[in-house]
Design a protein that fits this description.
Layout lengths: L2 H7 L5 H8 L12 E6 L14 H5 L7 H6 L18 E4 L4 E4 L3 H4 L5 E8 L5 H10 L9 H9 L9 E5 L22 E4 L5 H4 L10 H22 L3 H23 L7 H7 L4 H6 L10 H14 L4 E5 L14 H23 L5 E6 L3 E2 L17 E2 L3 E6 L7 E3 L1 E2 L6 E3 L2 E2 H11 L8 E4 L2 E4 L14
Parallel strand pairs: 1-7, 1-8, 4-12, 4-15, 5-6, 5-7
Antiparallel strand pairs: 2-3, 4-11, 8-11, 9-10, 13-14, 16-17
Amino acid sequence: MNRRDALKTFGAGFGMLGVAQAASQQPHFASQAKQVIYLFLNGGPSQVDSFDPKPLLTKYDGKGVPEEFAKNAKKGKDMRNARLMGSPWQFKNYGQSGLPVSDLFPKLGACIDDVCVIRSMHTDLPSHEQAITQMNSGRLIAGHPSMGSWITYGLGTENQNLPGFIALCAGTPHVGPQLWSNGYLPSAYQGTYVPTDESDPEKMIQNLTNRRIGRQDQRRQLDLVNALNKLDIERRGTDNNLEGRIAAMETAFSMQVEALDAFDVRKETAAVRERYGVLDHVEASNSKKRSATRDGDFARGCLVARRLVERGVRVVQVYFGEDIPWDSHHDILVHRDLARQADQPIAALLTDLKQSGLLKDTIVVIGGEFGRTPSVETSGRINVQNGRDHNSEGFTYLVAGGGFKGGTAYGATDEFGFAAVENRVHLHDLHATILNQLGLDHKRLTYRYSGRDFRLTDVAGNVVQGIIS
């Protein structure tokens, strides 16, 4: 009797539930994409300094908002004392599409023909905790499944030796594990967190290798524990948490085969690591810390993400770094160092995916929880008044691959960049469109919990046809 037959037999076959939860599943309809890489720039990057140029900001730099604009704007009252600030960076048109990109992202600019620039994103609240939670889970409050969990719930995974959903970060982003939580979905769909501030995969994934006993004895131990767990399920009935633990133990055992190789970027050539901007641990430790992040950590996350989707991992989310590094209230010039760490690896990732043909099957999403205001942050707590405040009313997201229209700018903010005014895209719309490209109907991808059906997009969301092929 092989192991799969044993799982079917022991505990009335309940053990197969844990395995079945992770298996690849059919989408609702034909899909254009199979996988997602979400590069999350936590803290809120400034759209008017990156991908949404506003010439009027330069004209009115240091001045107040023109009275006629403030009077007609949605938030006119808030603008009375606003002092506008032009971007310190120049914009240049890139590629055949001629889309403008600032000096902050020249390497990404070279890839812009493969990128759809959504300039009309908006979300519900401008506070970090709620906005990050909502951008990751569709909800303002904790307790709901993350987008990665919803996707793996709908599609499963194509690699039984690796988790279907992996979250990568050097340190912990603001809010933390809730961002990759399975919420009320079965625990098999929770994201697996792996830190990227180490280059040795055995340090990235603690206790993966058992140095005391061999794989055959480990297999016997795990089969015994699973058999006992299944007997318990048979006695007490269905238990999603226990079934999730069974699946997690199976995945952990299987990871010994493939994970150490998948996470080991040292197996890439020196030229590839240099192209991404990956530094080894010694170099990174000795590098100057001019920001809240360490050089090379985000680059390592991007390179690991590529290696994981190559191996069939369904969703990989790479957070930029500890807490909210892009939160530039005091001085927007901090964006220069942050963009330097982000521009090179993002461009390298897009280039590699395109060259390998994986970009057709992989959606790459780039953005933060909101954007930043076109005006200067002037509150009393600001020591250098050269920064920008939070802006949830209008900001930019980038999407590439998976059937999204490259070389396209969609939607627009007003002439200064305060709010989205044309073809507005709510985060529910973005989530619905990502699911659509994966062959999932966001209205049908539901889970019944506490007496009602829940979904990623709550009771809203529309597929944005203008950004997909």
